[in-house]
Specification:
The chain is of the alpha+beta class. It is 43% helix and 16% strand. The chain folds into two domains: 132 residues, Sufe protein. Chain: A, CATH 3.90.1010.10; 55 residues, BFD-like [2Fe-2S]-binding domain (Arc Repressor Mutant, subunit A, Orthogonal Bundle). The structure holds FE2/S2 (inorganic) cluster.
Length: 198
């Protein structure tokens, strides 16, 4: 069976007919705009929103990402319309994957692009409307229990240039005791490399 058929019908529909694509950036008077990703590896995402009375009235996006990033952000842009900002801030890649009828495990990292770009757009709106106090730092999750290394530490190491597991270990010391964190750390390394470059 072809690998393509692991995608659900809903996901295929959002890929074939993506909703809310930003066609004309100048014409869309955005109240908030967020961009994440790295053009070099093809995964770049921009999300723009219009806000009224603390509710997302419109949400559009554009990407050079893969099928999963396109379908996830198409679904995300539908889901958050009409949502209060605080609620939209909490929508996770998992919520979107469920709505799409599941995403192949190795594709879930693609869907974080839309999610991060949306939060960046909301943060941008908070800045533009003098509500900086509402910007939330994402809570850090401990990945390596032995060395107390979090996902934020891994993100920082990748931003600093770590690209291999060995470089990540050198920077953070994760995985140097029991080694049980290796798989999770490698997943995050892969995900952040997509976001921050080759
Ligand atoms: S959990 Fe990372 S070395 Fe033990």
């Amino acid at each position: 069976m072809s690998q393509d058929w692991v995608y659900s019908d809903i996901l295929k529909e959002h890929f074939m007919n993506p909703k809310n694509i930003l066609e004309d950036e100048a014409a869309f008077k955005a109240d908030g705009k967020g961009s994440v990703g790295n053009i070099k590896c093809g995964d770049q995402m921009m999300v723009v929103i219009k806000v009224e009375n603390d509710v997302i009235k419109d949400c559009k996006w554009k990407t050079y990402g893969c099928a999963s990033a396109i379908a996830s952000t198409s679904m995300l842009s539908e889901v958050v319309k009409g949502m209060k900002l605080d609620e939209a801030y909490k929508v996770s890649p998992k919520d979107i994957a469920v709505k799409l009828g599941g995403l192949p495990e190795n594709k879930v990292h693609c869907s974080v692009l839309g999610d991060k770009a949306l939060r960046a757009a909301i943060d941008d709106y908070f800045k533009r409307s003098s509500q900086e106090h509402r910007i939330q730092e994402e809570a850090a999750i401990i990945i390596c229990q032995c060395m107390n290394v979090t996902d934020k530490d891994i993100e920082a190491a990748v931003k600093d240039g770590a690209r291999s597991y060995e470089e990540l270990q050198y920077e953070t010391k994760l995985g140097t005791v029991c080694g049980q964190c290796k798989d999770k750390a490698e997943d995050l390394l892969h995900q952040y490399t997509h976001l921050y470059g080759e």
